[in-house]
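Workshop exercise sheet. Pairs work together: one partner reads the sequence aloud, the other fills in the structure field after running the prediction. Swap roles for the next sheet.
Pair: D.N. / O.F.
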Amino acid sequence: MDINSLKVLFTSLPGRYAKALFNEGKKAGCLNEILDDFGKLEIFFKKHHPVKKLLTSGCINITDACVGWNAVGDHLSFCPVFAAFILQVAYNKRFAIIGRIKYVFNVALAKHKNMRNLIVSSAVELLPEQKARIEKLISRTFKEKAIIRYKINERILAGIKIASEELVVDASALAQLKQLDAYYRNIRINV
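Structure field:
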């Protein structure tokens, strides 16, 4: 699938960065390496928060920042496309949006591979038979191959919530309570 079919997602600033990165990665044949590099960078910065703070703060001049980013890229063995991309993001002082860039890049990569990333949230751990029923329903619903990640979110109280890039199916108790609240608020306003 062509990522241009997701035009709305790519009109934002993170979307434009992600689209440029995706297109360069596709030309160079390193889309999977770029995805791995996003993960390596995230893990590195969790372990080395002071380095992240220094490189993203704007307290150092751009020359020193580039030297620092090159050192991080060399240490983590970034692919050349990702290394150049990170330098551009740093130069433009756009590192604050790197998480959103990664998200849009993931969407583009999933579409390119004819896959769909899904998050199934529940208040408690689902039983294997419940997961099997959900996976069967998902495979009948979507034509793409589904990559399902299960997540526990106690705030939803009960039920499940299934979310993908462009779709949310919320069958949680929290959603139903919110709908009831909105309904009764509307009745009070109209009375």
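Discussion prompt: The two ends are 51 Å apart (CA to CA). What would you look at next?
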